[in-house]
Design goal:
By secondary structure, the protein is α/β, with parallel strands linked by helices. The chain has one domain (about 20-155): 2-Layer Sandwich (Nucleotidyltransferase, domain 5), CATH 3.30.420. It has 4 helices and 5 strands; from the N terminus they run E-E-E-H-E-H-E-H-H. It has helices at about 55-70, 90-105, 115-125, 130-150, and strands at about 20-25, 30-35, 45-50, 70-80, 110. A 5-stranded mixed β-sheet has the order 3-2-1-4-5, sandwiched between helices. Helix 3 packs across helix 4 (about 130-150). The longest helix is centred in the C-terminal third of the chain and has 22 residues, at about 130-150. It starts with 19 loop residues before the first strand and ends in a 19-residue tail after the last helix.
């Protein structure tokens, strides 16, 4: 399992250009999902799965979506403490990621998700979305924020914002 270290800030592995990455925001009640475009440049909210109470069933659903969208990497948000430490929530995610990686057909890695839900909530509030409507979508929007951050952290020339640099792109 190519998961990152405790900081969650390791340079991400690069999926092949013609394949997608699946972003996953693991919550206690819901799981937010986002997918990248085939070029690995743009993350889009995809779906919200309700936790079933059966982790194996939840993992099967995540793996099923990964297969459905032809993801070659699953990126799970790691809720580090604001100081970058691995608190109880992050440790719980790391433990679950280890179990998810055992059933996934593609690599599973973690990436720092600090403040992704806050960012998602602010974005949705800026769109004047009502609280009830926000609750239905915030998890998949948070997954998209996480996945976009992961894409943007990719080395230059391998997708994401850094990959947009080229002969006609910004310096």
């Amino acid at each position: 399992m190519p998961a990152s270290g405790p900081t969650g800030r390791r340079a991400p592995a690069r999926p092949p250009r013609d394949r997608r990455a699946l972003g996953v925001d693991l919550g206690s009640k819901r799981i937010g999902l986002a997918v990248s475009d085939s070029a690995g440049r743009l993350a889009t909210p995809y779906d919200v799965l309700a936790r079933s109470g059966d982790e194996a069933r939840d993992h099967a659903a995540i793996v099923g979506v990964a297969a459905e969208v032809e993801a070659c990497t699953i990126v799970v948000g790691l809720p580090l403490s604001l100081d970058g430490g691995t608190g109880p929530a992050a440790q719980g995610v790391l433990d679950e990621v280890a179990r998810l990686a055992k059933v996934a057909a593609v690599p599973v890695e973690t990436f720092d998700e600090r403040l992704t839900t806050v960012t998602a909530e602010r974005d949705l509030m800026a769109q004047r979305m009502r609280a009830q409507a926000r609750r239905r979508v915030v998890d998949k929007v948070a997954a998209a924020v996480l996945l976009q951050s992961w894409l943007d952290a990719l080395p230059a020339g391998e997708g994401g914002a850094a990959g947009d640099r080229g002969p006609t792109g910004p310096p």
